[in-house]
Amino acid sequence: MPEAAPPGASAEQARAMWAADAASAALGMRLVDLGEGEARVSMVVRPDMVNGHDLCHGGLVASLADSAFALACNSRGPVTVAAGFEIDFLEPARLGQVLDAHAREVALRGRSGLYDVTVRVGETVIAEFRGRSRSLGRRD
């Protein structure tokens, strides 16, 4: 079992992971909040993010949720990766809208975790994402 991180070290490790995340940066994602087992990330829907129906591409909504999920499940220290996820799209997102993804830890058992991410535009829920994580049992 890995050694516990000193207070505040887990958040620092998650922030370092975020700082090196070129994919999220390229999509203009912004870290809004980070806590133990929880994260909030936002993104503005740009013209290069809309599909042939003039709606935000679903894969980009999933990418936003996945980035919030990654921060939440790495907020405790050990390097943690996705084992899988599901996403349900409830409403479309449109050009210029600000998407907000709030990830929350639901369960953590040994090296496995379960996280829910709600993606909203204002008060409107756009998508619900459930991610399964697996700790690699090491720290970077």
Automatic annotation (TrEMBL):
Domain annotation Thioesterase: ranges: 55-124
Keyword Ribosomal protein tagged: no
UniProt superkingdom: Bacteria
CDD domains: PaaI_thioesterase (cd03443)
Presence of keyword Hydrolase: yes
Matching Pfam families: 4HBT
Single GO term (MF): hydrolase activity
Sorted UniProt keywords: Hydrolase
InterPro entries, sorted: Acyl-CoA_thioesterase_PaaI (IPR052723), HotDog_dom_sf (IPR029069), PaaD (IPR011973), PAAI_dom (IPR003736), Thioestr_dom (IPR006683)
Enzyme Commission no: 3.1.2.-
NCBIfam families for this protein: PaaD, unchar_dom_1
Protein name listed in UniProt: Hydroxyphenylacetyl-CoA thioesterase PaaI
Native source species: Nocardioides pini
Gene it is expressed from: paaI
